[in-house]
Hints:
The chain is an alpha+beta fold. The protein has helices at 10-13, 68-86, 118-125, 130-149, 201-204, 211-227, 238-247, 260-266, 277-288, 304-342, 426-440, 446-450, 461-467, and strands spanning 24-25, 29-37, 41-48, 53-60, 96-102, 105-111, 115-117, 152-153, 162-165, 170-172, 179-180, 250-251, 301-302, 355-358, 380-383, 389-392, 471-476, 481-483, 486-495, 501-512, 515-523. A hairpin with a 2-residue loop joins β18 and β19.
Amino acid sequence: MVHRLALVPLKALASLPVDGADHTLAGRYRLQDRIGSGAMGIVWRATDELLSRTVAVKQLLLPPGMDAEEAEEATLRAMREGRIAARLHHPNAITVFDVVQSDGVPWLVMEYLPSQSLAALVHERGPLEPREVAKIGYQVAAALAAAHEAGIVHRDIKPGNVLISSSGTVKITDFGISRATGDATLTRTGMLSGTPAYLAPEVADGAEPGMPSDVFSLGSTLYAAVEGVPPFGLNENTFALLRAVASGEVRKPERAGELEELLACLLTRDPKARPTAAEALPMLEAIAGGSRPKIVAVPNWTSPQALEEKTLRRRRAGVIAVAVAFAAVVGALVTSLLVLNQRQVATAGPPGETRTITFGPGPGVSGTTGPTGTSSPGSRVSTLPGGAVVPVPSGDDHVPPPPGAPSQPSQSHQPPPAPTTTPETPRNRLIKDAVRQFYDLLPGNTTAAYQRLAPATRPTLAAFQAQWADVESVKIQRGMRVVGDAVHLTLKIKSKGITAASAAYVVSAVVSGDQVQIGAIKQGGTGGEGP
């Protein structure tokens, strides 16, 4: 896997003066000065002499060592960039006006925005306040939602591609590695598209980038703006960084404040559990306005200490593997000795000792237990106080008690135990609280409720929202009973145009430490009890 670098071949710039002055493209775009560089090109400020306006033009740069086929592919990708980006017209996205060629090299003509990138702003000022980050994020999400609506995946959302003007207008730039739905795939096999520190885990793990991965990158960008570093930290070793991204272990934010719950939603490991860019808009708007929307998410945070411990565990893996192999050999030897010992003829113990001995069917084993009793191979005998040996038949046969012992009913006549509710414990209270919080979110906040579902049993977000589309209210009518990992309760559900009805449900809980997720939900059970 190759980390994309903006490597500038000298031949691409040989025909240009250092400052680009007096060089005109397509007879109308006169270059003035260089203003930045991106993944595949250098951006120049220029004047459109036909329309008398300032524009930005992006020159394609080919990494050294490309053969003719690879160079052609890169050129096609740049032309495709122009076609895709030109389809998007949004106040928070840089507009592409034209695509021209000069000396066989394509140039993109774009809207010029005097601005500073979010990356430069954070570098200059340090971590930003959560409300300011939410205002920036709202505009980025708005453009991203429009792009996704048009079938465009950006694939490289990061602070360097977020431009902020002096008036506070925010625009996304560099759709150079984006891909439109239905367009041909032009990225070479083995080429990494995107910046590793802001990739979604599934992309780092080899999956195709999509709209959910754009949302994860949006979360990574906002995380970096409020924390000062990307969610997976910084590492000059690209492969080590990709390994950290693929693990999905996000460092717990320390400065996110009211943004923390939303970041947990955007940065969740499961792509299906993330909100869409459009769904994130009202949450970002509320935070930017000073309120804290009700968002319940299962945090994906990992403490720095835990990450360090995991690194140490990985280093010890080789030693542990050797120890396990050695233990397996020793265990096999001990097991063999125990089997041999078990096949010895059992003898009665001293007076007062009670023990049960199992006879194995191996050769040379006698069923004789001594003058006080006999047994056949494979049966069990119990040595009672005083040294008496009593054969114990296998199966469910009733064994008469010895003289003087209290009588007990046989196992076959004992009534089955009645099902009982698991006693109230901290674990049970944790499960009840999780179920109560889940239904408190419904039907008004389906996105947040969806975050509470266990990945193994959850449907798609769209399907989940469709299930609750016509529901006006839901209420836990009676108390809840926890039986193992299942919660029995009664729900009163009111749907549009239908009288409210009550029904019993069983909700399974998936418990991991102090985290509880909602598993399968089925109608039936015995319902809730108590207040």
